[in-house]
Amino acid sequence: MTNHTNSIxxxxxxxxxxxxxxxxxxxxxxPRDLFTIWFGSxxxxxxxxxxxxxxxxxxxxxxxxxxxxxxGNLAGGLFMALHSAQGPQLGVPQMVQTRGQFGSYGSxxxxxxxxxxxxxxxxxxxxxxxxxxxxxxxxxxxxxxxxASAVLSLIATAFGYNLIHAYTRVMxxxxxxxxxxxxxxxxxxxxLPADFxxxxxxxxxxxxxxxxxxxxWQLAYAPYVSDYSRYMPKDISEKSVxxxxxxxxxxGSFFPMILGIxxxxxxxxxxxxxxxxxxxxxxxxxxxxxxxxxIAATNAMNLYCGVLCTLTLGxxxxxxxxxxxxxxxxxxxxxxxxxxxxxxxxxxxxxxxYTNFILMLLYVLVPWTAxxxxxxYLLAHGSYDVASFFRRDGxxxxxxxxxxxxxxxxxxxxxxxxxxxxxxxxxAATALGGADISWIVxxxxxxxxxxxxxxxxxxxxxxx
Length: 464
Prior knowledge:
By secondary structure, the chain is mainly α.
């Protein structure tokens, strides 16, 4: 048994399972593995760009921007880590578990939206990977860089869970050291402008907008964070899983975002990558290459989980199908080809497209996370009939859970007046000076309503 487990745990072996429940004999890993996977995967260029939005889009000063992204990460990380703690208990991907709240067919809309989320983040990361490689070596075109980043992500996805964990474990050390060197170089060698602290200022709309962007960064992991804890032993401490995931993701996100804020305040034309290259001097090559490798690690995670979601959609309509590694690899190849095309043709308007994308994503993720967490922790208390997840009729959960679907749509509806984007700004957001607090409203409305209308119908079932 030990040899078998060690074989499964080997990063050089191809993972055979996809969306199936992980058997007890195959369970392995420690909570600290969750710190490195979330710390190492977040130190990359897209995190830096996201932090820079607090300045380039929301026009905040360094102190206000830093406070905003700190609050956003601390708040959003709570939801991310609560989802992570579900993995060892159920041993299935997060989107498979969603059938326990929405029913077999009722979950299809949510899973499809999450697939779209992966597509957006994958394409965004590929664009940055290509631009980064082009920035340090002009002989490498941005398109070639996009393809190179895609190939690295595809290889890690093909091998699966253990290689991705190993990759991010190594990147935690490499990226962490390089990030610290980058801060040191910019502050003590390149230097900051004399009026650095006084540049920009405060506006309530921008402050709340920056909080929302940082919170969404954490919330965006919620649909797949437990995918990377599902192999861990069922009797592992849920508190340890929570805290290692929380601090890994919050710290790994917060510091790169601070780098983005610093660079965005200093640059004139808003080109963050060019600004990093200029401000790090002879260290630039190492910084960009390491951050680009970080992109490949994160994209491998996005691709891996996007493929699991796609397989989940397929298995919903063909319940006797049990996809294994071959299906994962084939689906990953098809997906990455689509991503390459999207990245190449969408890179010219990257920043505008990315900002709009993550704001719209916020609106559809918040109601789902509220329903999932209330159901798991307050209604089912972590006990589900896992076998029902894989039945066409949803087993004890049925085809549709109309209560969950109602609350999900209600959540989106109540967010509309509080939305503030370049496409649409609701009346409540306008009255608040452009501040977007829709995610707070969505959580505050959906959580108690779903609990109240579901508690009399909730019957805890033993997880299998």
